Amino acid sequence: MTTTTRTRGITETMLGFVRVLRAAGVNADTGRAEAFLRAVDALDIASAEDVYWAGRLTLCSSATELDLYDACFAHYFSAQSVPTGARPHPVTVARSAMWNTTEEQGHSSDAPDALAAAADTEVLRGADIATLTQEERAEVARLISLLSAHRPHRTTRRRAPAVRGRLDHRRTLRASLRTGGEPLRLLRRDRTVKPRRVVLLVDISGSMSPYADALLRLAHVVARGHPGHTEVFSVGTRLTRLTREMRVRDPAAALASVGAAIPDWNGGTRLGAELKEFLDLHGQRGMARGALVIVASDGWERGDASLLAEQMARMARLAHRIVWVNPHKAQPGYEPLTAGMRAALPHIDDFVSGHSLDALAQLATAVIGGRAEKGGPRA
């Protein structure tokens, strides 16, 4: 077996461990996973102790995650075999007391149940939300509340002192007066960075009912992480502003307030008319100018599709970027055949799915954070 194959096997094994940690609730994000792989590469892969400490020091972000890490490490490297040929001596870890059977401990343990829950959570991450049971949707709702949305930024025209950037002649000359006219240090300035406004328009019509709750919970995550720079609206047969309700920190209380504020749950869809109302009352006055606008809808337009196309073109002239989230996009063989979707597509920068927990996490980090590839229809 080649060195490349062995390395790939080790990497897959370690990434599998990272996925188990995430399912168990450990905040092992992509950056921590990369640090873990670099640490393992620099240490003795045959040493269980080296692998243990490499993961503990790179993947855990708080003391509360240490118990979860110990439990997942003991189970993963005891129960799962390492790929054949991946290393001369596979990593083996003796089971800790919490993984012993009832006969060995003399009393029952809840650890196997916790492990089963972690495995179920891993399966839920990629499952279509519309196919889940009520209990599974409740678990997905809990996991969504644990997400964190990256904050998008915009570069302003104002400049401020910086380490890199253009030479600041005025400050450099002024500083040289203290050194006899000799500019011993070149001072620079660069453009400042400010948070970019995020506007979310969530379709709560009947056709979007399996996904509306999850999308509103994601909107709460964004609003919670970007207070003062996030606006949330529901669209259906009427436009409802939900920004005030989303300011409540507790997800359950926030969604309860949202439910009481929305008068048109599971109704029809008048996207064109609602977008026109949004732009007339809010967007044209500044809310959509330079903003990241996220429209979550399946594109089922009950009204005139030409009105929707007109308003999308209008919004595209105002917004920095438009992201359209359609949960049906993930279905095999999907094509944007609805009149509303065809009308909106030419004015969209990013067309993504939002059908699963993984898709929503990607939306919260890469798309909203500005790291999505610019491959949308308009590009």
What features would you describe in this structure?
- By secondary structure, the protein is an alpha/beta fold.
- The chain folds into three domains: 3-125, no CATH class; 155-195, no CATH class; 198-367, von Willebrand factor, type A domain (Rossmann fold, 3-Layer(aba) Sandwich).
- It contains 15 helices and nine strands.
- The strands form two sheets. Strands 6-5-4-7-8-9 form a six-stranded mixed β-sheet, sandwiched between helices. Strands 1-3-2 form a three-stranded antiparallel β-sheet.
- β7 (292-296), α13 (305-318) and β8 form a beta-alpha-beta unit.
- The protein is globular.
- The chain starts with a helix and ends in a 12-residue tail after the last helix.
How much helix, percentage-wise, in residues? 40-55%
In N-to-C order, the SSE pattern is HHHHHHHEEHEEHEEHHHEHEHEH
Overall, the morphology is globular
Tell me, what is the CATH class of the largest domain? Alpha Beta
> How many domains make up the 3D coordinates?
3
- Uncertain runs: 79-112, 371-379
Mean pLDDT: 81
For the biggest β-sheet, the strand order reads: 6-5-4-7-8-9
Sheet/helix structural class: alpha/beta
Cα radius of gyration in angstroms: 25 Å
Number of helices, where a helix is a run of at least 4 consecutive DSSP H or I residues: 15
What's the main sheet like?
Answer: 6 strands, mixed
Distance between the termini: 44 Å
CATH hierarchy: architecture of the largest domain: 3-Layer(aba) Sandwich
CATH superfamily of the largest domain: von Willebrand factor, type A domain
